[in-house]
User: What shape does this take?
Amino acid sequence: MKFAELREQVYEANSKLGKSGLVVLTWGNVSGIDPTRSYMAIKPSGVSYDDLKPEDIVVLELETGKVVAGDMRPSSDTPTHLVLYSQFAEVFGIVHTHSPYAVGWAQANESIPAFGTTHADTFYGPVPVTRLLTQEEVRNDYELNTGKVIAEHFSASRIDPLAVPAVLVAQHGPFAWGPGPEKAVTNAVVLEEVAKMALFTRQVRTAAEAVPEFLLEKHYRRKHGPDAYYGQK
Ligand SMILES: [Zn+2]
Assistant: This one.
């Protein structure tokens, strides 16, 4: 099988997403790219997670979007994934879901504040919400423009995509990513938990505040960067 390793890796990540509880029916998709950033593998469109096989995974040329392996049509969100890889140089895996708690915040056009240490362990600051796409952006090249508004937000707000590995697209839903497809799925799972906890926090106290900077910093740095000491070596 052509691109066997990449397809297997992306197949495994999609299977993991299918079992994660974040997706129903055929919703959602995971993609991954090869180490040279030349090819992207992604879930085929409209195939259920239970029926998915490694050879169903579609491979495209990253630069042109041309299909180079696989007989099925790639996920309809493919142009969004392609734009994000072209803009986020350290990202090697991307997940899109309509997981309900994250969608709740996205539909409310609200970013998820970093209310506590669960959030800070994975996200170094709020999980941002993008601007709404314009009528023109929705009518033409909708999926491509979805990627562009995400990249635009991270660039304008100077957010490092690996420090905050997720976003909420306004009135749509979450995208999460990471240094590989499997880690991207993990980040999507954490995002959903954090979105749920943040909702409870707001319910308990409407005026709840974000964690102070020193606590955010402590928790993020325990797990990331040169001074990380969480887990096993
Ligand atoms: Zn969607």
Observations:
- The longest strand covers residues 173-178.
